[in-house]
Amino acid sequence: GRADSAGLLKLSVVTLRGYAPGRTLSLLDPPACSSRSPITYWFSDSGRYLAAANCGNRVTVWDLDSGEQVREFQASAGEVVTGAFDESGRDATLVVVTGTMRSVVNVATGKTEVEDAFADPISNAALAGGRIAVYTPSDSRIRVYGNAAAPRLGRALFETGLDRVGGVALSGDGNTLAAGYVGLGGAANRV
């Protein structure tokens, strides 16, 4: 995405199946948004929804079937680290993770169904296959939890200690964790 002279963030969406032309969606970039704010995007597994997080704690959701913006969500604390959709229930939900909390938002209603704080601030997180992996620098631990959209995360399915983690990723099915750490390379573990 890039901002134009009117302050609109232009986002191109290109469908890779067939020869259908792409479409351009516009997101108003508020004046308080720093040009250094990262912009991240997530598709739902079905490809119907696209979310864009920018300006720290704001997430906008589009329905790509209609091309319309369907929801805007603002996390109550911290900058957005990552997010993902969960389409396993009656309504799709959006899981948003900031450095201090996790929120689960019903895409159809806009209602925040879950909002809980992490015990310690996180610096990296990944969501895939319904699982969530988080890294807490205060204790140098990576934890993987079973159901990212659950009312409570419960006990970690997997936990390991690594110092100075620069990034974590989960495979699409949520069964493999990769972590990159400063000065030491990287590692992958089956969850």
Instruction: Let me know the largest β-sheet.
Output: 4 strands, antiparallel
| Radius of gyration, CA atoms, in whole angstroms | 17 Å
- Main sheet: which strands, in order across? 4-5-6-7
N to C succession of SSEs? EEEEEEEEEEEEEEEEEE
Which stretches are low in confidence, meaning pLDDT under 50 for 5 or more residues running? 1-5, 27-31
**DSSP strand (E) fraction?**
over 45%
The geometry reads as globular
How many beta-strand segments? 18
Tell me, rounded to a whole number, the average pLDDT.
Answer: 77
Question: Helix fraction?
Answer: under 10%
- Output the number of helix runs: 0
Structural class: mainly beta
Would you mind describing this structure in some detail?
This protein is mainly beta and 191 residues long. The model is unreliable at 1-5 and 27-31 (pLDDT under 50). The strands form 5 sheets. A 4-stranded antiparallel β-sheet has the order 4-5-6-7, with no helix packed on it. The protein has no helices and 18 strands.
